[in-house]
Amino acid sequence: MLAKAVLPRKKLNLLSVSVFMILALWGALFICSLLTNPGIATISVFANKVAFGVHLLTLWLLLDIYKKREKAIEKHTLLWLLILNAWLLLVDIFYCIAANTFLQNLSFLRFLLYYAPGIVYCGFMIFFISKVLLKNVLKRTVFIRMVSTLLMMNVITMALFLSSIHYAFDVVSWETVSQIILLSTELVLFDFAILGLMHADSTPAKLFLSGALILIGGDFFLTYSYLSQTTELYSYGQLLWLLGLIFIYISIMNMKKNESYNVNAWFRKNSAIKSQLTFSTFIIAIGCFLLLFVLADVFSIIDKDVFLGLPLFIIIYSAMVVILSLYIGAAVEAPFKKLKKNIALLMSKGADTQLDADFSIDEFIVLQEFFVKMFKLNDEKNIMTQRLNQIATDAAHDIRSPIAVLNTCLEYVPAIPEKDRSLMRTATCRINAIANSLLNEFREQSRQECIASDVRLVSLVSLLHSILREKKAQFSAEAVNINLDLRQTDLSYFAMINSEEMKRVLSNLINNSVESFIDNRGTIYLSLNGDENNITITVEDNGCGIAAQDQERVLQRGVSLKENGTGIGLYHAKKTIESWNGILSLSSVENEGTRITLQLPRQTTPSWFIHQIQLSLASPIAILDDEVAVHRAWQLKLAAVSKDFVLNFFTEPQAFLDWAKQQPDFFLLTDYRLGNEMLNGLDIIERLQLKKKAILSTGHYDQAEIINRCQQLGCYLLPKNLMYYISVSTYR
């Protein structure tokens, strides 16, 4: 025999049963109040007793939750709810005491027991709601503006109400004043509860605030019954009061069920479309309603005794308007929520995801189609970027191998003059740097990290001279003149930059200038100027220029005026200069030319750099270099200063060392690399301990290890390409 499957039985939830029973009892009382007329006293008394039961259930539930919570923020919220509901119980207790006949004529004591507790409860609730709204929902200015608008409507309501109070009472008594004070306070609480309900975003908040509104409505029925001296509405007031307590009890039960103990999470921000639309609709509806009564009062269209029930009418009408406004707000918000959900799906799963396209508004259909199209384009762009990255990786890998071979061969080709070898060495370094940059060209963040990672002090004069030689060699076959006059320039212009990236920037700017020439004929002017704080490099040409409306655009990524341009060059230059705290500016005139200025912060001249050589006529000068052309250059340079210099030229380290042993005093000008010899210029300076009596003149001046060693040895370092510009003085 097959065993019967045992289905798990659902646990009987006593709280849910209690809610069902209370609501059923309330429904029965409401039906009885409709059928009985005017025998309502029994119903009111019984509703009062049920209300005490609901009070006790609510407090018991809150105490149980409070004991089990540990988070401070949750216990703070629950403590407030405990205080509010405990005081609400006191309000009912005092009301029952005050209802006794022996207090009817004791006006002040009746006020203390019947009205004062209700006024205090309203104050507690106003403070609680305003605190929550200010902390989590509304900015102070917005909160003040909204509350002021609502209070202004209260003032109009109370003004109309007071204008008719004499229709109910010929003499203003303590009882009447008490009723008016309580009514005014409840109207203020009503405004705050309405404001909270408009921004409520959770079931406990909606139920709790709805319960507060129903409580106020019930008390308004009781007040109107007293003021109008009618008993028909009295039982409805008691039933509404009971219904409000039931709503509060259900809100606490829902809070326990969903564990939503943090009141700060009960509300949405005021920036939500639903909140703003609900508030606007409410203000317009209530404003028009009040305007109608104001006009009726001014022109005496209706009897003023009608205004006695105006606060009650406002309560009922407001409840209807808020419900309708929230419904309209939810209907308007629904397509936005659906669109937001679809965008989240697009972001997580891509453009091919199946989306909910059930929109009843054409604009949302178009908007979703636009987003889908944008995500498809973005996916295509990502695929293309991945392909380009792969191409760049392959190209960089293929370029590095032959460059490494060329660099090795350069060290073993002494037949090539040093200046040409230096130019070739610079070119191979630049090709290698370009290969490296290919890997990061389409990954902007990685590229910026790469640029920033190799920032150091760089001589701008030497850098400009280097890029000038390279570009002149590049365009030697074309009618392009590139001019750079450094004779009057301060050689101690240093900036914190990445030298390879700066060369790339200048190379691209010069290339742009050449491309702007008609028939490849034109002149490019490079200049270097500065003051104590900044250094300015200018690249100016007499090309075709750039139209005024395009001068801002060409600095943006992807914008190019050339037929096959990528729009990366100028954008890269601008971003690179800015990454060094510099400024790139462009000015151009069509058919006249373009001027680009690079401004960089000036740095203190490093201790290893020498910008002026002082030589003694009494000491011989040794020049150690494997290039005879360098010997000739130093000879011409020094001869122009004085013919009394005693110059000694060496191409091999050992010959120089043999000579140095016989000299008590001399000054050394040496290269770093000395052909195929094992010793370099710094090794010789260290061996002879020459320190300040030696200058290392080399094309490898920008290598960190050479700079650090010069500083350790205490000798000077001179970029070889600056030997033509450095000044020389003599002393005896």
Describe this protein's structure:
The protein has helices spanning 14-35, 41-68, 72-98, 107-136, 140-162, 174-199, 203-227, 234-258, 273-298, 310-349, 362-410, 418-438, 444-453, 460-474, 499-515, 569-579, 628-639, 653-660, 681-688, 704-713, and strands at residues 456-459, 480-484, 494-497, 522-530, 534-541, 583-589, 593-601, 612-616, 621-624, 647-650, 667-670, 694-698, 716-719, 727-731. It has 20 helices and 14 strands. Helix 3 (72-98) runs antiparallel to helix 4 (107-136), helix 5 runs parallel beside helix 9 (273-298) and helix 14 (460-474) packs across helix 15 (499-515). The strands form 4 sheets. It has a 5-stranded mixed beta sheet with strand order 2-4-5-7-6. The radius of gyration is 45 Å and the shape is elongated. With 732 residues, the chain is of the alpha/beta class. Among the domains are: 14-142 and 170-271; 473-601, 2-Layer Sandwich (Heat Shock Protein 90), CATH 3.30.565; 612-731, Response regulator (Rossmann fold, 3-Layer(aba) Sandwich).
Supply database-style keywords.
732 residues; alpha/beta; Heat Shock Protein 90; Rossmann fold; five-stranded mixed sheet; five-stranded parallel sheet; elongated; disordered N terminus
